[in-house]
Amino acid sequence: MNSLLIFMMGLAVAGSVAILKMNMAVQSIVDEGNNYMTHLSEWRVDGAARGTREGLSKKVAATGNSNNNNNNYAAFDIQQLAGDLVESFSADDGIASKDRTEFIVSFPKDSESKSFTSCQCDIVTTDCLDVIACMPGLHDAQNEKALVWTGIELRRAMKATSELTGSPENNWDLPLGKGLQYNLMDTWRDWQEKNILPASYDPQGHSIFIHEGRYPDCLVETKLPNGTNTIRFMGHSCFYEGLAGPEDSAMIEDEAKRWFETAIPNGTETEEQVRKTLEDFFGDHQPGFEAQEAQQQEHYSSLGNLMLFAHTTRMIFNRRPFLEKLYQEKLKSVKMSDIHPTIRKENADTDKNNNNNNTNPFNVALHIRRGDSCGKHVEEKFIDYESEASPLDSIAQIGTKRMCYKTEVYLDAVKRIRALVPERRPIHVYLATDDVGHLVDEITHKHGSNTRDTYGIDELYFLDYSRKHFNYKTDSIEDEENGEYQPILGETAVADLWLLSHGHAFVGHKGSRFGKSSWLLAMARRNNFVPFFSVDGHSFCCEIDESCAAVKPYITVENCLTFGHEYLRLDHEDYWTNGSVVRKKHFLERHNDQTSEEA
After folding, report:
1. ∠ Cα 512 518 523 (to 5°)
2. Phi then psi for 589, rounded to 5 degrees?
3. Nearest to residue 431, comparing CAs of 439, 422, 423?
4. What are 429's strand-pairing partners?
5. Are 148 and 252 in contact (CB under 8 A)?
6. What are the CA-CA distances from residue 111 to residues 117, 136, 144 (Å)?
7. Do the Cβ atoms of 3 and 23 come closer than 8 Å?
8. Is the pLDDT of residue 88 over 70?
9. How is the beta sheet containing 427-433 ordered, strand by strand?
10. Strand 505-508 to strand 362-368: parallel, antiparallel, or no bridges (unpaired)?
11. C-alpha dist (Å) from residue 479 to 157, 230, 474
12. How far apart are CA 442 and CA 440, in angstroms?
């Protein structure tokens, strides 16, 4: 049974909204004039009024006069936002996540026409950049900060209404991006079925990608007899705080907190009401601690599953403070105006007419793979990289069939984003790659002023790590022969994931576990949908060694989030010829088991 979901992603800034269609639910929009928020009417299902829960019914408006605060913010009803957010995460159509086979987000270009077909995103595909034009909430600074603040409170409520116990699986030999995804799948299943979240990482764990001795914060000052320090936090616990500790906070989160303190009067009362709304929501949806085998996932909409999955990623990716310091030390940027004099003059002329030209940038997370990702090109003696992005029906990419793509393929997607974003917002690109020196030079110099004039990039951010560590001696970084490089690759992986989490939009590789994780982190930090373009022919829902078009009929919301053939230890036939084809078998077996139980 399929359903089409409609959600208001931007929560309606300046009279225009982004809506996710869910079965037959329809929201009517009431324009509040100059307010930044367009308030929603009650949700209606099958023509009948849907009563809100007691915890969602009390929506005390937090309003302020724009003349009475330093930031000139208009009145903003953040409690309405929180209530509408959790309503959009709920499903009343009775369809379990394992049976949802459509994952479509729709955004009307014209809110007055209530047309739900003019602009939409299929999560089980590779290109959703066009929805940028349909999400005005992406381009309003106050709405953006309100969503971020609400996301922080949403994660706090998830933890407050769950049992915090135990630790994630150690995954000592997995690269940190892949290990993060596997831990996420475990955490998600435990939270869905038992309402349990891991309290902390095992301080006695181990990872070949983390060398604790490099980081004083992971050591104890007490000296051993030989004069060395003892290790306090081993393995993943060296990098990650765990859910029981305070949440890692950086620029995006800090700005949202300052906004709330400045723009929202009666802040303490409003915060209490928002927390009650969010905790009541989870209290109504999550199983009790004693319900060890409860299946509750059907109570969340497809959007609810996706966004809560993203927030779960953010909770387990809770960096220790020293990693932010290392990140800031390695973070570098290049302004196109500093390289090309003609751009500098154009910017100066623009600044005379637009004081906000260098503020509120639109960030593009750009993930470019090189090195061990280019199996096909290594096998064929480094023939030219692919000149076009792969379509959804392209082949499974395994071993010597894995492809890399010309830089222009990525930059063309950035060019599309520039055309969709209001001109007043500069485009800042956050580049994560295993070939940073060459690519920064190519983007800033080879393309010359085209970097700005053609592709629309105003500033480029990257991390200044030596990439010689990516010159692997064997095909797999996990191999013992690459042991000397493994520890620094753990640090660069965490830093690159954090770099990409700044994006308002994502361009890169969704077939990569690393790409998937960074996209989820960005959505959680923004507490909003992040439009995307995947160059490798793979969507968020399928693995790099699958043919996405072939397995799409067997993708459900549930297995989109939690399927991994290695993770599930599923057997293959003719893997090196056809790639992974076991999702179909896995889907049919579960479907047949369910049919038999119902019969």
Report:
1. 130
2. -65, -45
3. 439
4. 364, 460
5. yes
6. 12, 11, 19
7. yes
8. yes
9. 331-335, 459-463, 427-433, 362-368, 505-508, 532-534
10. parallel
11. 41, 28, 7
12. 5
Q: What is the pLDDT of residues 417-461, one digit of tens each?
A: 999 999 999 999 999 998 888 899 888 876 655 667 778 899 999
Domain 324-537, CATH: 3.40.50
What does each C-alpha distance from 154 to 78, 81, 173, 193, 449 come to in angstroms?
A: 13, 12, 32, 19, 43
Contact call for residues 79 and 59 (beta carbons, < 8 A): yes
Residue pLDDT, tens place only, 191-205? 998 999 999 999 999
**pLDDT surpasses 60 at 415:** yes
Q: What is the pLDDT of residue 161?
A: 95
Q: At what angle do helices 486-500 and 513-526 cross, to 10 degrees?
A: 40
Query: What average pLDDT does range 95-99 have in this prediction?
Result: 66
More confident residue, 509 or 33: 509
Q: What does 249-318 look like in DSSP terms, one character per residue?
A: --HHHHHHHHHHHHH-SSHHHHHHHHHHHHHHHHHHHSPPTT-TT---GGGB-HHHHHHHHHHHHHHH--
Summary mean pLDDT of the chain: 77
pLDDT at 454: 79
CB burial readout 373-383, b (16+ within 10 A) else e: bbbbbbeeeee
- Measured in whole angstroms, the distance separating CA 352 from the mean position of its chain's CA atoms is 36
Location of structure tokens 């002329």? 349
Candidates 365, 315, 225; CA nearest to 307 is 315
User: At residue 264, what is the residue type?
Assistant: I
- Calculate the alpha carbon distances from 30 to 40, 79, 112 in Å: 6, 16, 10
pLDDT of residue 501: 98
Region label for 356, one of left (φ > 0), alpha (ψ between -120 and 50) or beta (otherwise): alpha
Tell me how far apart the alpha carbons of residues 417 and 32 are, in angstroms, rounded to a whole number: 30
Rounded to whole angstroms, the Cα distance separating 364 from 501 reads 10
Query: What predicted TM-score, i.e. pTM, was given to this entire model?
Result: 0.83
Q: Structural domain boundaries of the chain? A: 29-162+248-281, 324-537, 555-599
What integer pLDDT is reported at residue 410 of this predicted model? 96
The two tokens of residue 184 are 């996420």
Max CA distance (Å), the chain: 76
**Beta 331-335 vs 459-463: how paired, if at all?**
antiparallel
Is 575 within 8 Å of 398 (Cβ atoms)?
Answer: yes
Helix, strand, coil content of the chain in percent (nearest 5): 45, 10, 45
C-alpha 534/C-alpha 410 separation (Å) is 9
Angle among Cα 205, 502, 367 to the nearest 5 degrees reads 80
Return phi, psi of residue 21, to 5°: -85, 125
> How far is residue 23's CA from residue 21's CA, in Å, rounded to a whole number?
6
